[in-house]
UniProtKB/TrEMBL annotation:
Gene3D superfamilies associated with the record: 2,3-Dihydroxybiphenyl 1,2-Dioxygenase, domain 1
Residue ranges of every copy of the Glyoxalase-like domain listed in the record: 5-180
InterPro entries on file: Glyas_Bleomycin-R_OHBP_Dase (IPR029068), Glyoxalase-like_dom (IPR025870)
SUPFAM superfamilies for the chain: Glyoxalase/Bleomycin resistance protein/Dihydroxybiphenyl dioxygenase
Name of the protein: Glyoxalase-like domain-containing protein
Pfam families: Glyoxalase_3
Length: 270
């Protein structure tokens, strides 16, 4: 199975504040509804290719710290906290992962009330709490109930292009992905912010083992997790619609970051 990005949750303690931050950066999040079982609510930024950012926050600031899937990220306003991939069947993908000696959690059945209908889906988590592996999603109801149609057609951004996952041990993470997904040997690079990098040809995931600095502190605090989400697009055109800074090159592709998000959200040249 090639891991195809479905969406990336972007966590914070207050949904209105998250939405405002993205609106100030030129995006137009659409309210996604409440998930009563986990005490959370969300807004969605859906890209033209159907991939999405899910802005995620608790509905009650007194919600128990164990509620939701990523409470530590939510409380810390830490932004990208995980990454989800599409699975034809969560049950089958978890069974496949087990056959590769991967610890799994699920399948879990979830639902969210939206203005398009009650969305229901299955979700499963691969690996333990310190795993860089994704969670997997398959819909029980039409996908547009969970992920609305994109409002960004005509945008210079086309989709979630790269998720850069920060890990403590790059070689171990490469081995996990290579075994589970039968991926070819990765290309290597190095960056002052993200440290040593490994990218699998043709895939949307990049692994990094950071040196000293904010990304290293992020790994030490949260374990393996997304360091940044890079949206694919024409960087020059995107700069006319979104405030960008910090130009650099990763794996030969031009990258700039969105103001107001440090280096946790950016644009990579398609």
């Amino acid at each position: 199975m090639r891991p195809v990005i479905d969406h990336v949750p972007f966590a914070g303690p207050d949904l209105d504040a998250l939405v405002e931050r993205f609106e100030n950066a030129g995006f137009a999040p659409q309210y996604g509804g409440e998930r009563t079982a986990t005490g959370t609510e969300s807004a969605m930024i859906v890209l033209p290719d159907g991939s999405a950012l899910e802005l995620l926050a608790p509905t009650n600031t007194d919600t128990n710290a164990d509620d939701g899937h990523w409470p530590d990220f939510t409380a810390a306003d830490a932004g990208p906290c995980a990454w989800g991939v599409d699975a034809g069947s969560v049950h089958s993908e978890l069974q496949r992962a087990i056959s590769h000696d991967v610890t799994v959690r699920g399948p879990l059945r979830e639902r969210r009330e939206t203005d398009r209908g009650v969305a229901e889906w299955d979700v499963g988590f691969l690996g333990g709490p310190d795993s860089p592996l994704p969670f997997v999603v398959s819909d029980r109801t039409p996908r547009e109930y969970r992920v609305p149609d994109s409002a960004l057609y005509g945008s210079p951004l086309s989709g979630v292009g790269r998720v850069v996952l920060a890990v403590d041990d790059l070689d171990d993470a490469v081995a996990r992905f290579t075994d589970l997904y039968r991926l070819p040997a990765p290309e290597r690079d190095h960056d002052g912010t993200f440290g040593a990098l490994a990218a699998f040809p043709g895939q949307d995931v990049v692994l990094c083992e950071p040196d000293e600095g904010p990304v290293r502190e992020r790994v030490e605090r949260f374990g393996a997790c997304p360091a940044t989400v890079l949206l694919t697009g024409d960087v020059s055109d995107a700069a006319a619609h979104h405030p960008l800074h910090g130009g650099r090159t990763l794996f030969g592709k031009r990258v700039r970051f969105v103001d107001g998000f440090d280096t946790r959200l950016g644009v990579v040249e398609r």
